[in-house]
Amino acid sequence: MKISELEANVKVVNLAGTISHLDEPSETPNGVKVQEGILEDASGQVKLTLWDDNVGKFSLGDKIIISTGWCKTFEGELKVSTGKYGKIEKIA
User: Fold this and answer.
1) Where are the alpha helices (DSSP H) in the chain?
2) Which tens digits make up the pLDDT trace of 45-81?
3) CATH, residue 24
4) At 82, is the secondary structure helix, strand, or coil?
């Protein structure tokens, strides 16, 4: 899957890209760890949200793959995340 193929409210399967921006980790008001960033590939870029155990796990320039995740629209922009049950990992 390419970033240019993403659509809101659609499952994300095997989306690979490079992290080109990462904000500092933070916490939601109810104590959940979260980190925002940008994922890009040759077709474009999309906002990336990392939750809980994935916060702080990746660095700027890392190539990652989201094997299972979701894409939603938030504040008018597409965002991808693994959600609660998805899988994300660093690739060589």
Assistant:
1) none
2) 999 999 999 999 999 999 999 999 999 998 999 999 9
3) 2.40.50.140
4) coil
